[in-house]
Each structure stands twice: as structure tokens, then as C-alpha cells.
Amino acid sequence: MQNIVVKIGEHFASIYSKSERLIRWIQTYFQVIEWIPSLKTNSPYLLIHIEEGYGIPFVDYHVEIDSNPSGIIYRRADYFLEVNHDYSEASISVYDELALKHALHNLYSAFIIHNRWGLLIHSSCVEHQEKAYLFAGQSGAGKSTVARLSAPRPILSDEATLVKINENQVTVFDSPFRSELTSPYLPHSCNLSSIYLLVQSLDVRTSSLKKSDALLELMDKIFYWHHDSSETAKLLNMCKQLVEQVPVYRMHFQKNDTFWELIS
Fold this sequence. Notes:
Layout: E1 2-8, E2 11-17, H1 20-29, E3 31-33, H2 39-42, E4 45-52, E5 64-68, E6 71-76, E7 79-83, E8 89-94, H3 97-114, E9 118-128, E10 131-136, H4 143-149, E11 155-157, E12 160-165, E13 170-173, E14 190-200, E15 205-208, H5 211-219, H6 229-245, E16 248-253, H7 260-263
Parallel strand pairs: 2-4, 4-8, 10-14, 14-16
Antiparallel strand pairs: 1-2, 1-3, 5-6, 6-7, 7-8, 9-10, 9-11, 9-12, 12-13, 13-14, 15-16
């Protein structure tokens, strides 16, 4: 049994697994740190047990959810996730590394919503002049393309952005949940300056969205699996705080870097 500790955003997770293959994958994509006992008392903390040998290869994104007195169960063809009700301890069984990535998406999103910390948004995010710019859209909208075209600006995410939300500030942390693009880990957070909903187009322009429209459009771009109305209420409240504090635009863009002229 191997044990490593990783940091995600402001949180720490102690991970146990017998699988050297899965441990190597986590070490590749996550920030592994040296364990200090005081970390457990400084912020919400996760204990995760991981094993392989479950299920079949990826079929689709459908997740079945059940709740019982001991916790919540998320079940997909290629992974099985069980977490206790206070989101402090979880067990994950997976078919392969892709299944593990998606199971950790699921777990961490539920964890930060439960603790009212923030949201995991289906998007890319880029740092520019010490501020963060988030680019959201449906699959194929161009999130990874925009991140790639933004080089040499640091990439905070190309698939799932870690957004911390409170009443006075919205910040973004480097995300380990990557799709294609990797970059050196950025230890600092950045204030989120603006959000852009992507539309591939022959022209390049932006238009401002009303807060109500922005709220509706962002809701389906959050990694979240509904299982409890109180947790959904937390998500909705944080979404409202997000659009109150950060302007949201629709961005029409070509597959080149000219869109940055509209931002900076």
C-alpha cells in the first residue's frame, strides 16, 4: 500500500492505493507534497482509498447516484465512488486512468460545493498580467484551442477550472484536472477578471451578458451531479455570487490569437 499527499487548490488529500500504475498517474498530474500533521486542521481535508480492477472501459458520462445512511454512491460503467456525508473520506474503484480522472472530478467538485468553497467549471483559464481569464463552452467550443493560442501566457486549466468564490473575491487556482495541455505548476492564485462564453466565428467580437443570462449559461458548465437539494442550493448561491462579481461576455473568435486584443 502506497500513500501520497496532494494539494488541490487550498485543500489536501491523503491518497492510499496498492496500484503503482494509478499512483504514478497521480504523481504526474497532481502536486505531491510532504505531509505535515497540521495541514489536516488548517482546511477541509480528504482521505481517499483508490483501487483498480472495476468495471469496463469508458462508455458514456452517465452517472447513477444513490444515497444511504453511510454515504453517497456515484456509479459509472468505469468507476465506482463512495463518499461519506461530510465529504471527508472516499473510496474509488476504477477501470483505468481516464476513469480515475473523472471520478476525482466528481469527488472534488462535490467536496468544494459541500464546503461552500467554490466551483469546478468546464472551461480553460489563462493568466495574463497577474489576472485570470476564463473561457467556457460546450465540448468542441474551443476551450483547449483558446488556451493553446494564449501561449506563452501561463495556463491555469484547459478542461476544469478551480474557482474559489466568497462574498468579496473570486480567485482561480492551478488545476490538476487537465485534458491535453500541461504546464509548470503555478503555486499562486489569481483574481478572476472576466468570463468568456466561446463561439467559433468568422469575426472577432465580444458582447456583454446580463447577470441573469450569464447565470443560466454557466449553470450547465459546472461539474456537478445532483443528489441533494441542499447541495444544489449551495451551488446556485455560489453561481449567483460569481456573476455578481465577475463580468461575463459572449466571445466570437477565430482560431488565432486576435481575441486577446479584445481582452487586453
